[in-house]
Every structure is written in structure tokens, then in C-alpha cells.
Design a protein that fits this description.
There is one protein chain. This protein is α/β, with parallel strands linked by helices. It has 14 helices and 20 strands. Strand 6, helix 4 and strand 7 form a beta-alpha-beta unit. Helix 3 packs parallel to helix 4, helix 4 runs parallel beside helix 5 and helix 10 packs parallel to helix 13. It is elongated, with a radius of gyration of 24 Å. The two termini are 34 Å apart. The relative contact order is 0.11.
Length: 514
């Protein structure tokens, strides 16, 4: 991953391939942000004028490159748009800093080192800039640029990957200050795990399936002192995990339930995280229509987020116990696959009539939620790319939050907004429950079409232990980005919800669960 340093050099003396400064959108044109003073001086005080002449406005996501003048030790200056000028010059929103840094880092792919002289009024600002730059510098290159065995010796394939920015140097920080050091360390730990989640989401399904995902989790557990338990098919049969087995029985790659347990000797609270891990979702016998299969490797984004959050909690040494449950299966059509009309006996003992095999995520989550509830944690949060209905309701960039406790739902919404993840609280209307009544089983896995995302939440609620605060994050929209990159968001897997889960764990450790 891209390296991060807290630079002792000033903007005018830093040696790098480029220097990034901030520019905001003012009423009469671009306005230079704090941190750009030395650069503006090198431009004889005319940097804003030059930027305006080049068409720069300071709008969010805007990146303007220009050659550096004499007086700077870099060949290129990049002006990154911060959006509207804040009421106080030094009070730039953390998300604006993240996005500007991310946009600049993306524009610097292929460079070895860049200095970031964006506005830093506190350690929190430095952390936001570091997060944005490191997230923006992400690139998934594992399957690009390899040697072509059919071409002359040493010849590589034409689609050679452009390496991401090698090093981010934060200018204007205090390298010896404990708060700045802690901010940098936290940013690196969290972003490395977000990028690990992105790698997993982007990995093709022929290489990432339940068994191989479980192996990645096991290796990470050994590295970071996390206890990992993997239930294979035999163990799932013995335990009666009918949801996981029912979804996974159509594939040659059997299902797995992976438990990751990070514990702290002084912890007073336990947080359980449950992730949907459908490593590929064809829809099963209820096959998805053409045009809907190509990105279904991303249907394990919830499990990737949970995995990343548990590892990040361990790396940060948070004073809270965090347990992650990865419900892993591949949903495929075959002669062995579950059929519409089949009845599954879940781990909880409840029976479920499967009316649509493409509503499989709730089945694997139900088993994992029941198992997580047995350990009586203080709270459970599940994360899943669960319904297209949530995308219809909230679009591609916002995830929905449902819960059995209004205060807990509000806390998670506030945390998500604080860390820069767009979310919205959603209800669980009791009248929608009746639509899942089944004449054959205790409940059906489908209900009314309208409000389908809420119906899925009501289904999951049935499998949460009594008296346990629970929230459900439907990240179907923001988990996988199919459009052009923006800010610090790449094309492909995004790592959605990781930052929210990590901050929730930190709040829980501090005794502020909500």
C-alpha cells in the first residue's frame, strides 16, 4: 500500500514529484486554502489568478495540474477542489478534505512521492487527509500486467497496470506530537484493512470462494492475534445450519461459517458483527436475468467489511471484544440446488419456505445471527449487499440502516455520517411482516414486493436473540461502484461500512454504545 509520512519539511522545501494544495469555491472565483501560502508566494501571489485562468473553480472533485515555478522543489503543483469556502477559513469539513486528497492521489498514479499541503488545523484534519489520500491511491492490479507466455520472451500483456502513488507526505503536521502520530497510525491501519476488503471484493469468483475466503481470514487471524474458527460442510450439517447449507448446496464450493474473535483483557463490552458472504450470486434456480450477473462477485462485500473491521479493531488494540461472523456460500444453479418451494430448517429451529432462491443472503445471515446471539453480545450489527430495493430507495451511494432499537439506529447513523459514509435510517413496519406468512413453514423468505428492503430487515429480525440491540446495514448500493472513480472512491469494490464499524467499536470501547 501507499506509504504515509508526517513531513518535517515545509511546502517550499519538500522534495517530491508533486505538491498538492487546496482551493475552495468562492463567490468571486477560486480561493486558496490554508497550507498553500508558500506555493502562492512562489507564484508571486498570483496562484489563484492562474488557477482561474485555467478554468479552476475550487469545486469538489476538481483537480488542476500546473508546472511549479522556481522556488519550489517539486516539478508539479496540483490544486485540489475542496468545495465551498467554509465560514471559518481553517474549518474545512473532514469529508471535504478526504475527497480532495483522494482526487489528488488518483491523479498522481504512477508517481513515487507527493506532498499534501491541504488545510491542517488539527490531528483530526491530518487523519482525514491521510485517509482520503491512501484510499484514493488504491489500485487493484493483481490480474494485470503479467508476462505473456505466447509473446516473445519477457513481453508483458498490453494492459499493464499503472502503479498507485508510492508515498503520501503530509505537510504542516507535527511529527513528534502524540496526537498526530496516533492519527497517522489509525489512518494507516483502517485504510489498509479497507483496501484488503476492496481486494477481496474485486477478486474474481473463480479464485475467491468460501474455502479460500476462510483461508484468508485464518491467515489474518494468525498475524494479528485473532482467534479464528471455521465450520466446514460437515460441521454445518452437524450443527443444523440449514440456511447456509441450503444456499450453498448447488455449488461445488461448499459453504463455510467463519468466526473471528478479537478480545481485550480489559474489555467490558462485546460487539458482534455479521457479514453476508455470497462469493458469487447467480440467483440459484431463480436465475438472475442477463446483465445482472457480471458484478455478483461483490455479493460478499458485507463479509469483507466485517472481516476488515475485526482486523482493524485488533490492530488498533481497542478495549472491546469484537466478534466477526462471515456467512460464506456460493449461490449456484445445479441438480443439487435448493428449489423454489423447498423448506429449510434453520439453525434457530425455525423453518423457512424458499419462494425465491435469489433471496439467499437473508438465509445465510439468519443462521449467523442466531449463532452470534447465543454468545449474548451487547449488540449485533449485520452488513449485507441484501436488496435491490434498497438501491431503488436510496440510490448507489447511500446504505440503509434498520434496527430493533431506535436509539441504536440513530447512533449508527450519526457515526456513519461522522466518518463520511452516506447512510439513512429506515423503518421496520410491522404490517409488512404478514406478507412473509407461509402455509407450509414458520416463515417465507419473501414478502411484499413494495418495501422489499424493509421486508428483508423484518426477516432478519426474527433471528436475533431476545433483548439484544441489533442493526442491519443494507450496503447494496455503495458496496460496488460501477462508474468512474470519484474522490477517494475507486471503480469496483469500495469497502463500504468498514469505517462505520470501526468507529462503532471505538465508541463501544469508550462506553458510548448508544
Amino acid at each position: 500500500m501507499t506509504a504515509l509520512t508526517l513531513s518535517t519539511a515545509g511546502a517550499a522545501t519538500l522534495r517530491a514529484d508533486a505538491l498538492v494544495v487546496g482551493v475552495a469555491k468562492g463567490a468571486k472565483g477560486p480561493v486558496l486554502a490554508p497550507g498553500s501560502e508558500a506555493v502562492d508566494k512562489a507564484f508571486d501571489g498570483k496562484l489563484a489568478t492562474v488557477l482561474e485562468a485555467l478554468g479552476a473553480t475550487g469545486a469538489e472533485g476538481e483537480v488542476t495540474k500546473l508546472p511549479a515555478p522556481a522556488g519550489l522543489k517539486v516539478p508539479v503543483v496540483i490544486a485540489a477542489g475542496l468545495g465551498s469556502v467554509p465560514e471559518k477559513d481553517d474549518a474545512y469539513d473532514a469529508e471535504a478534505l478526504r475527497r480532495a486528497a483522494g482526487s489528488a492521489a488518483r491523479a498522481l498514479s504512477g508517481s513515487k512521492k507527493a506532498g499534501f499541503a491541504l488545510p491542517i488545523a488539527s490531528a483530526e484534519d491530518a487523519e482525514a487527509i491521510a485517509e482520503g489520500a491512501l484510499l484514493g491511491a488504491y489500485a487493484f492490479t493483481a490480474y494485470q500486467g503479467g508476462e505473456n507466455k505466447l509473446a516473445p520472451k519477457g513481453k508483458k500483456n498490453g494492459n499493464d497496470a499503472k502503479l498507485p502513488l508510492g508515498e503520501v507526505a503530509l505537510v504542516g503536521t507535527k511529527p513528534r506530537d502524540k496526537a498526530f502520530k496516533a492519527a497517522a497510525e489509525r489512518a494507516v491501519a483502517v485504510v489498509e484493512e479497507i483496501n484488503r476488503a476492496r481486494d477481496l471484493i474485486n477478486t474474481p469468483p473463480n479464485d475467491l470462494y468460501p474455502e479460500s475466503f476462510a483461508a484468508v481470514a485464518t491467515a489474518a487471524g494468525k498475524e494479528h492475534g485473532i482467534k479464528v474458527q471455521v465450520l466446514d460442510e460437515k460441521a454445518l450439517v452437524k450443527g443444523g445450519f440449514g440456511g447456509l447449507l441450503g444456499v450453498g448446496q448447488g455449488s461445488t464450493h461448499g459453504p463455510r461459517l467463519v468466526k473471528l474473535a478479537y478480545t481485550h483483557p480489559k474489555a467490558e463490552k462485546t460487539l458482534a458483527l455479521v457479514g453476508k458472504g455470497i462469493t458469487y450470486d447467480s440467483g440459484g434456480i431463480s436465475l438472475k436475468p442477463a446483465g445482472h450477473n457480471e458484478t455478483m462477485k461483490c455479493d460478499m462485500s458485507g463479509a469483507a467489511a466485517v472481516f476488515a473491521a475485526v482486523v482493524a479493531a485488533a490492530r488498533l488494540g481497542l478495549q472491546v471484544n469484537v466478534t466477526g461472523w462471515l456467512a460464506l456460500a456460493e449461490n449456484m444453479p445445479s441438480g443439487n440446488a435448493t428449489r423454489p418451494g423447498d423448506v429449510l430448517r434453520m439453525y434457530s429451529g425455525k423453518t423457512v419456505e424458499v419462494l425465491n432462491t435469489d433471496a439467499e443472503g437473508r438465509l445465510v445471515l439468519a443462521d449467523a445471527l442466531t449463532r452470534a446471539s447465543e454468545e449474548n453480545p451487547d449488540a449485533i450489527v449485520d452488513v449485507a449487499t441484501l436488496t435491490g430495493a434498497m438501491m431503488v430507495a436510496l440510490g448507489n451511494r447511500t446504505f440503509g440502516i434498520m434496527a430493533n432499537d431506535d436509539a441504536f439506529r440513530t447512533s449508527i447513523h450519526e457515526i456513519a455520517e461522522e466518518v463520511g459514509e452516506a447512510s439513512w435510517p429506515m423503518p421496520l413496519p410491522t404490517d409488512l411482516r404478514k406478507g412473509m406468512d407461509s402455509p407450509t413453514a414458520d416463515i417465507a423468505n419473501m414478502g411484499e414486493r413494495m418495501g422489499g428492503g424493509l421486508v428483508a430487515g423484518l426477516f432478519l429480525k426474527e433471528f436475533v436473540g431476545e433483548g439484544i440491540a441489533w442493526a442491519h446495514l443494507d450496503i447494496a448500493g455503495p458496496a460496488f461502484h460501477e462508474g468512474a472513480p470519484y474522490g477517494y472512491t475507486p471503480k469496483g469494490g469500495t469497502g463500504s461500512a468498514v469505517r462505520t464499524l470501526v468507529k462503532l467499536a471505538e465508541r463501544t470501547a469508550a462506553g458510548d454504545l448508544g
